[in-house]
Specification:
InterPro entries: AKR2_Oxidoreductase, NAD(P)_OxRdtase_dom_sf, NADP_OxRdtase_dom. This protein is α/β, with parallel strands linked by helices. It has 11 helices and 10 strands. An 8-stranded parallel beta sheet has the order 3-4-5-6-7-8-9-10, with helices on one face. A two-stranded antiparallel ribbon has the order 1-2. The structure holds NADP nicotinamide-adenine-dinucleotide phosphate (NAP).
């Protein structure tokens, strides 16, 4: 699998990583055996980047990663996140003490002295311009609790604000065939500053696999049901913020552009060939999905004609729903 440097961290990571929100919760139950199988399949296939967070299943995703890695000799780069344990969820909660407590809990969950990367987990917008937060993160780098830090953002504007801070080593943002705005300014700015980019929600929560129809239903414990209108968190995290029926219709056209290649792989291939992207981090609920997603790294790049078709699809069907919002 192709690897790329993650910004200035010194780490080389696979272009296809693994998102592990699914191994914690919010996507319906993923049992222990399946979770272990997903992690093993990814690592066996050459994935060297895992993305997790302290709140995925209230620590369950991190703990499952620790257990999977205990049985293996190689160590992937594990990017976790901190900040959504803030209660109430407001900027004033991002104190050095709270940040330290969240980081220490992740160190215990993952069973490491030093976290490879901590990303601020889509905090309130004001946090991205609070110098005290960056000072607290710098202090944790200095004392070895974390090797590096970055940010996960909802909006391009938040990402650009974070990039003003020299200690930021990575930006995580939604980027997919239905979410193109980061291509305009965020990715070029990150590249110019030597900052790594992790592209999340690359399949638009599964829409870009082409397997959903207008009548598909999701379980009560699946955010594609309970957050359809942003009831629990930013609606942009569910189907990339594209209204479901609009997304299903656009995905049908996307499948046509993919020809005889699996749409999920084409969607991932599109992400990894965008200049400035370090890695794409698709989530997976089963071993077969992991293997399919890893195979995307080996697909030939999309042609100019296909890229133009995808841009047109976005402009005609999707742009009006997402472009000015995130
Ligand atoms: N705020 C944040 O920082 C934030 C927010 C969201 C996500 N993330 C991170 O980004 C990762 C990826 O985003 P995401 O999981 O939300 O969305 P995603 O990667 O766009 O979609 C994942 C879903 O797509 C389906 N899928 C995956 N591979 C497939 C394949 N080969 N064939 C068919 N279906 C496939 C699965 O759906 P089924 O479950 O229906 O099988 C899977 O649960 C997360 O796991 C998490 O690590 C971070």
């Amino acid at each position: 699998m192709e690897t790329r440097p993650l910004g200035r961290t010194g780490a080389e990571v696979s272009v296809v990583g693994l998102g592990t929100w699914q191994l914690g919760g919010d996507w319906g139950e993923v049992d222990e055996e399946t979770a272990a199988g997903v992690l093993d399949a990814a690592l066996d296939a050459g994935v060297t980047l895992l993305d997790t967070a302290d709140v995925y299943g209230d620590g369950r995703s991190e703990e499952r990663i620790r257990k999977a890695l205990a049985a293996r000799s190689e160590r992937p780069f594990v990017a976790t996140k901190a900040g959504r344990r803030a209660d109430p969820f407001e900027a004033a909660q991002y104190t050095p003490e709270n940040l330290r407590a969240w980081v220490d809990r992740s160190r215990r969950n993952l069973g490491v002295d030093t976290l490879d990367l901590v990303q601020l987990h889509c905090p309130p917008t004001a946090v991205y311009s609070d110098q005290r937060v960056y000072d607290a993160l710098d202090a944790m780098v200095d004392d070895g609790a974390i090797a590096a830090y970055g940010v996960s953002v909802e909006t391009v504007a938040e990402g650009l604000t974070a990039l003003e801070h020299p200690g930021v080593q990575s930006i995580q943002v939604i980027l997919n065939v239905f979410r193109r705005k980061p291509l305009e300014e965020l990715l070029p700015t990150a590249a110019a500053r030597g900052v790594g980019v992790l592209a999340r929600v690359p399949l638009a929560s599964g829409l870009l696999t082409g397997r959903f129809t207008e009548s598909t239903t999701f379980g009560a414990d699946d955010h594609r049901n309970f957050n359809r209108h942003g009831e629990a968190f930013d609606v942009g995290e569910t189907f990339a913020g594209v209204p479901y029926d609009v997304g299903v219709a656009a995905a049908r056209e996307f499948v046509g552009i993919c020809g005889d290649r699996p749409p999920a792989q084409v969607a991932l291939r599109w992400v990894v060939q965008q200049p400035g992207v370090t890695s794409v981090i698709p989530g997976a609920s089963g071993v077969g999905q992991v293997r399919g997603n890893v195979a995307a790294a080996g697909l030939p790049p999309l042609t100019d004609g296909e890229l133009a078709d995808l841009e047109r699809l976005y402009d005609e069907r999707i742009r009006q729903h997402v472009h000015d919002r995130w």
